[in-house]
Single-stranded DNA-binding protein
Amino acid sequence: MAGVNKVILVGNLGKDPEVRHLDNGRAVANFSLATSETYKNKQGERVTNTEWHNIVLWTPLAEIAEKFLKKGNQVYIEGKLTTRSWDDQDGNKRYTTEVVGREMTLLGGRPDGSSSGTGNGGDNMAESPVSNIPEDDTDDLPF
Amino acid sequence: MAGVNKVILVGNLGKDPEVRHLDNGRAVANFSLATSETYKNKQGERVTNTEWHNIVLWTPLAEIAEKFLKKGNQVYIEGKLTTRSWDDQDGNKRYTTEVVGREMTLLGGRPDGSSSGTGNGGDNMAESPVSNIPEDDTDDLPF
Amino acid sequence: MAGVNKVILVGNLGKDPEVRHLDNGRAVANFSLATSETYKNKQGERVTNTEWHNIVLWTPLAEIAEKFLKKGNQVYIEGKLTTRSWDDQDGNKRYTTEVVGREMTLLGGRPDGSSSGTGNGGDNMAESPVSNIPEDDTDDLPF
Amino acid sequence: MAGVNKVILVGNLGKDPEVRHLDNGRAVANFSLATSETYKNKQGERVTNTEWHNIVLWTPLAEIAEKFLKKGNQVYIEGKLTTRSWDDQDGNKRYTTEVVGREMTLLGGRPDGSSSGTGNGGDNMAESPVSNIPEDDTDDLPF
DNA sequence: TTTT
DNA sequence: TTTT
């Protein structure tokens, strides 16, 4: 029964997150994330191999994604692999594998090129680690 | 372009690995791995949620899997996520996500209940970490 | 300011955990964990390199360690690196680096070779993943 | 004997790497890396907790660090924990724990603010993942 | 399809 | 101090 199911990604968003706000007050964000590796092949040519991942974030990460993540941003995401099935129009069972994030950190510079020290305020935490994992004596919400 | 694409799993094999030996001398092993988590739901009932992962191992991990891994065995696998596409009989594009392992450790007791000290020899390393990552001054092959 | 500080270990306890119950109701467990890697050196000799880690677990993982972990057990531990300083008898500043666990899974067979189905009861969950990270709609305590 | 000893860090360099080139042709780089987490304490005040890690990189990562890493840069580092002992001037045994990197990715923007598209060339790969782990059919050196 |  |  013991199990570990962990995914660690550092990549760039292929597009802005799509965020849906559910009736129960929760939100869910979806976006694709590209992780690229570069190497030289036998011919000595530089080759880039890009892998795309389907990311799913739930409250409170979904709201943070909505506010701070944009197409092109580089993020660290830790989560778990989940595969769900559905029936397509031909009646075939199909499977989609997604990474459900549980920790997220926006990497690199200012989220959208804004300078620091703006009155925005939210900017101040955009590079902080955010998660839905409580620390001792802490409030894990970034603001 | 920087990227990290890492998966860490501890789970149990759903069945024996299927190993194909290719014409080019390489081998590839496939098997499904279950990772389970148990929790209590709101009604206080214990619930087990199992996720199945498609594992792919190439030489030399494939041969090690062939020799030492059996249905039910618990293993640690580190690898990367890859999604490949193919066309089904209805002409639809379909996708399969797999974990391509790059490091593997057989966990727990003797692989199949055999006692230690058999003449088999190979048994002695079945719980050693195996990988295709060279260490300094080392031979990464387990035997 | 963004940061990730993650340690993932699979190893064996060098001795039984030492558990202290604090006045504030919390408990803390300490033990050393060995992670070994085996390789062949240039002379073709098998060499084992063992690294020892100082593990610290707080409530509720400390109580779980107290009940289920014993010298020799193999565990998966995920946590973070922390270094604390203290002054030795010569007035020198000294540093100790520890891994503060936040998720733990007992690996392999029965904790101490006991068969399943004992009246102990607690035994039943000893191989379940345990953590202090809440899941949705779940009770993360193992019992 | 099975073991996993893995550290994953995303942090910022506290100072430029110190690189020594050894007589045997190998190089070793040392620097400290800060990983910070921010949270709100019980008083609702934002608190930042910074942990410092001793990083050690060997050839070829050492040379890459020498060329591309500078104080303040944000990097992803994957490696293993090692503790080595030494005797201090008072004859006491002392221990230092370090993270020996095996994979590294420079995060965020241009390494030192240089614009892209320079003739430098090396710039082009500074954000690529670098490691001493061979891929199939690849040259793992970044240039 | 695994495991407890 | 563990494990195989």
User: Anything to note?
Assistant: The two ends of chain B are 38 Å apart (CA to CA).
